[in-house]
């Protein structure tokens, strides 16, 4: 890797987004001697997903010690699966510790980037113009709320909001609350709210497979051990990582015995935990476990049996001022309606306009579906790199591990510019086509392609994720194959 030495070019980098990946990029750039960079952040704080999502029950279903930067272990995680507020605090703490805050321009989104005369020219939401050799899009994956297009939604007389836009001014105690959706978000909200409200309706279009997890508080002794013995925390990370790799290896092969074991564990969870036969049948999925993103929960089945809770399975016909009318004619009266209806998972940096070489528009390049070579680089968009971009292993393993390996990879590409090997670098069209055709063929063998609908699928019904093993991903990320890149200048 070109990391140091004399006669290196001063490469200026613009990072878009100060979430997990943007903070990481800034830290790594500085570590490798790049001081000429800036982060543009549309909001007034760091944290990305963990700033935007504040719903009750918010937690990460990746164990906390794995959902941690490798270089900044946190012995003080309070529990095995940390809550959102604690994770937000962790990222803010890391950004402060590594003095990333000084490099962030808050409240400045980047609606426009254009590659012109060998430079990226950007315009921010405040009208500022800036330019750089390199743009890194650290803009996150699931951050454009998708509100279901249900007739009458605007007519609802109570409070109504998307799960990622939680309105904390709305009092929930003693209220009738309805949640539309049964994804990871809705399940976490359900477990947090059922016993705090007067009545809770979960509007389920599709039942979910639920994998039980051991979510527990770490004792003072355990936290002291992790603080005092670095090998203990490393051993824990290695163990969790091994479990995740096994899971990630299972989902890419729908016929694998491991996938059947996962399904058996979820099925046993349903059979053993839900006592009422009618409720159990409502909650029983009819598609393969793991086809949609698996729900990881220690207590969803227990909580949904609370006397306050009801699973509504009749389809939603419309929303009326007093509540939701289902297709069986019943009106479910509500005071508060939460749309836990997911995100537009194919947007990535968009709606930012990104114009590459000769004015090529990223939105047009991605008009069929978003594609990036190894999830990082797009042909004709030189020196423009995506973190957690399209076709990456999003959903299979810890996004932090993914971003760390991607940043190391991108640093090697930037190293080419810094060392004067080239001025412009982007994946070749040929390498990208070959990658995407192999990727989509492999994706058809994954569990995501076994006949359910989910945000993993592109508009043709093909899973958009990384369909190979984690070890293959990390091997690819170890060192760029430069022959796959167009290098000019
Ligand atoms: P999601 O998985 O996309 O779920 C959206 C839900 O809304 C689905 O149950 C869907 O039903 C339902 N829905 C959408 N439109 C509807 C309509 N018109 N009528 C009725 N129901 C409708 O979204 P999410 O729960 O926000 O989760 C998205 C992803 O975020 C997760 O898969 C996960 O990767 C991530 N996440 C992670 C965590 C974590 O702990 N790490 C927590 C929350 C979220 P159908 O299934 O029938 O389409």
Characterization of this structure:
By secondary structure, the protein is of the alpha/beta class. 30% of the residues lie in helices and 16% in strands. It has two domains: 8-46 and 100-144 and 344-488, FAD/NAD(P)-binding domain (3-Layer(bba) Sandwich), CATH 3.50.50.60; 153-216 and 224-339, 3-Layer(bba) Sandwich (FAD/NAD(P)-binding domain). The chain has a five-stranded parallel β-sheet with strand order 3-2-1-7-19, with helices on one face. The protein has a five-stranded parallel β-sheet with strand order 8-17-9-10-13, with helices on one face. It has a four-stranded mixed β-sheet with strand order 6-5-4-18, with no helix packed on it. Strand 4 and strand 5 (119-123) form a beta hairpin. The radius of gyration is 23 Å and the shape is globular. The chain starts with 12 loop residues before the first strand and ends with a strand. The structure holds NADP nicotinamide-adenine-dinucleotide phosphate. NADP nicotinamide-adenine-dinucleotide phosphate is lined by residues 59-61, 142, 148, 150, 163, 180-186, 188, 205-206, 293, 316, 340-343, 395, 453, 455.
SSE layout and pairings?
Blueprint: E1 13-16, H1 20-31, E2 37-40, H2 49-52, H3 84-97, E3 104-105, E4 112-116, E5 119-123, E6 129-132, E7 134-137, E8 159-162, E9 176-180, H4 184-193, E10 199-203, E11 210-211, H5 220-228, H6 230-251, H7 257-273, H8 277-282, E12 295-296, H9 300-304, E13 309-312, E14 316-320, E15 323-326, E16 331-333, E17 336-339, E18 353-355, H10 362-365, E19 384-386, H11 399-418, E20 424-427, H12 429-443, H13 470-478, E21 485-488
Parallel strand pairs: 1-2, 1-7, 2-3, 4-18, 7-19, 8-17, 9-10, 9-17, 10-13, 11-12
Antiparallel strand pairs: 4-5, 5-6, 14-15, 15-16, 20-21
Helix pairs in contact: 1-11, 5-6
Bound molecules: NADP nicotinamide-adenine-dinucleotide phosphate.
The site of NADP nicotinamide-adenine-dinucleotide phosphate has 26 residues, from helix 4.
């Amino acid at each position: 890797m070109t990391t140091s030495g004399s006669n290196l070019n001063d490469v200026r980098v613009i990072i878009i987004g100060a979430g997990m990946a943007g903070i990481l990029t800034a830290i790594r750039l500085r570590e490798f001697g790049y001081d000429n960079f800036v982060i543009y952040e549309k909001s007034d704080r760091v944290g990305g997903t963990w700033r935007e999502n504040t719903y009750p029950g918010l937690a990460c279903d990746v164990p906390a010690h794995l959902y941690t930067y490798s270089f900044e272990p946190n012995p003080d995680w309070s529990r095995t699966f940390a809550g959102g507020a604690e994770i937000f605090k962790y990222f803010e703490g890391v950004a402060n510790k590594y003095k990333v805050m000084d490099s962030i321009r808050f409240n400045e989104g980047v609606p426009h980037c254009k590659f012109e005369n060998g430079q990226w020219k950007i315009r921010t939401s405040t009208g500022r113009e800036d330019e750089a050799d390199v743009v890194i899009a650290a803009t996150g994956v699931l951050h454009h709320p998708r509100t279901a297009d249900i007739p009458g939604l605007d007519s609802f007389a109570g409070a109504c909001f998307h799960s990622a836009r939680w309105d904390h001014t709305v009092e929930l105690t003693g209220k009738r609350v309805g949640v539309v959706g049964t994804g990871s978000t809705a399940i976490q909200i359900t477990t947090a709210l059922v016993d705090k409200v007067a009545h809770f309706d979960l509007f389920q279009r599709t039942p979910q497979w639920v994998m039980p997890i051991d979510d527990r508080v770490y004792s003072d002794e355990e936290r002291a051990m992790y603080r005092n013995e670095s090998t203990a925390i490393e051993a824990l990370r290695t163990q969790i990582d091994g479990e995740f790799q096994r899971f990630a290896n299972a989902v890419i092969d729908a016929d694998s015995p491991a996938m059947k074991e996962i399904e058996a564990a979820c099925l046993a969870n349903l059979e053993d935990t839900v006592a009422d036969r009618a409720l159990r049948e409502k909650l029983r999925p009819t598609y393969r476990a793991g086809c949609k993103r698996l729900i990881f929960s220690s207590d969803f089945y227990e909580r949904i049996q609370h006397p306050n809770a009801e699973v509504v399975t009749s389809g939603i016909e419309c929303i009326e001022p007093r509540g939701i009318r289902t297709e069986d004619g019943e009106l479910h009266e509500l005071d508060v309606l939460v749309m836990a209806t997911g995100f537009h998972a194919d947007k990535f940096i968009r709606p930012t306009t990104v114009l590459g070489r000769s004015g090529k528009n990223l939105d047009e390049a991605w008009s069929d579906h978003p594609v990036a070579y190894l999830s990082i680089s797009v042909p004709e968009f030189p020196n423009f790199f995506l973190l957690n971009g399209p076709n990456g292993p999003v959903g299979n393993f810890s996004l932090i591990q993914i971003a760390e390996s991607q940043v190391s990879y991108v640093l090697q590409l930037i190293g080419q510019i810094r060392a004067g090997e080239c001025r412009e670098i982007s994946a070749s069209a040929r390498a990208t086509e070959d990658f995407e055709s192999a990727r989509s063929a492999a994706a058809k063998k994954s569990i995501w392609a076994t006949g359910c609908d989910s945000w993993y699928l592109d508009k043709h019904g093909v899973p958009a994720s990384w369909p190979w093993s984690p070890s293959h991903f990390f091997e690819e990320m170890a060192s760029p194959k430069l022959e796959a890149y167009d290098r000019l200048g």
